[in-house]
Amino acid sequence: xxxxxxxxxxxxxxxxxxxxxxxxxxxxxxxxxxxxxxxxxxxxxxxxxxxxxxxxxxxxxxxx
Length: 64
Fold this sequence. Notes:
- The protein is mainly alpha-helical and 64 residues long.
- 55% of the residues lie in helices and 8% in strands.
- The chain has helices at residues 2-10, 18-32, 45-55, and strands spanning 38-39, 61-63.
- Strands 1-2 form a two-stranded parallel ribbon.
- Helix 3 links the parallel strand 1 and strand 2 (61-63).
- Helix 2 packs across helix 3 (45-55).
- The chain is elongated, with a radius of gyration of 14 Å.
- This is AB hydrolase-1 domain-containing protein.
């Protein structure tokens, strides 16, 4: 029901993924930190999210 409503509204739901959100965060960090080292922290679901960010290996993210 909920997923179907989202699909009806937005089409393909692939953009509603952890990888997509992590890519968005990596893009934000790369654009707005001016190359400064960044540490990303998460708890519970955030741990899973930070793990995905680290998997993308952005050079600015030096710890998680």
